[in-house]
Design brief:
The protein is mainly β. It has three helices and 15 strands. Strands 1, 9, 10, 11, 12, 13, 14 and 15 form an eight-stranded antiparallel sheet that branches. It is elongated.
Amino acid sequence: MSRIGFGYDNAMRLIAAALLALTTVGVSAQAPMSQVPAPPDVARPPADAQKTASGLSYKVLQPGQGTATPAEDDYVTVQFTIWTADGRTYDSSISRGMTGTYALPKTIKGWNEGVRMMTVGEKRRLWIPKNLAYDGMAGRPQGAVVSDVELIEIIRPPDKQAPADVAAPPSDAERTASGLAYKYIRRGDPNGPKPTRENRVTVHYTGWTTDGSVFDSSLPRGQRSTFGLGDVIEGWTEGMQLMVPGDKMRFWIPERLAYKGEANGPRGMLVFEVELLAVTP
């Protein structure tokens, strides 16, 4: 990856390693998961669980805020665990130590239905019958599954809704001496590690030009991206060093800290939303 570019090429794709691929049928484990203790009611829904017409059972474990729920084409950022009915952990963002962001149309039917009833901050337990889960797919749980889900954020598809302040930094944005403007969208653990330019970082991100056009995003690819901070545009190298895992920030990067007029890169100031998921040596 070029030190002056963020993996941008004529196809507008990120040249970086993907940590995790989201399949078209649901949240899926890509490696053996460390086991998260299963709830005592993992084998079957309790008497106080509610049930939808489709057969999905659910229980609210923690109420959320507001009334907004995800639309059918939204992305969601969640903490989740999926167990088989015998209590075995199949997949878990908790085991990986980072949240997951998924396109709802690409998730299993029961998980999709359950999450679309939730508001931000809400936590639910879902008992998903076989026909709304992996439904006999090879290599996946063959029966019903149970999932605890906490909805962290609802994200509109990047190509349908650019930030309202995409054209210029707002008055409450902070600035560095170099001219980079930034704003925290969500805070992570203040005691978490901040990366240095020698580190590798794992992120979700979207980049817009100031007219609101998306030129790159990890979200539609369903992939987290990992790269070295010394291998990216200067504005990214500087901005990422302000973050800790769990932070989500918006950067307004002037052209001199971005692609500097390179022929194959986007021109002018660029706006990025970046969620830092992990820092590694």
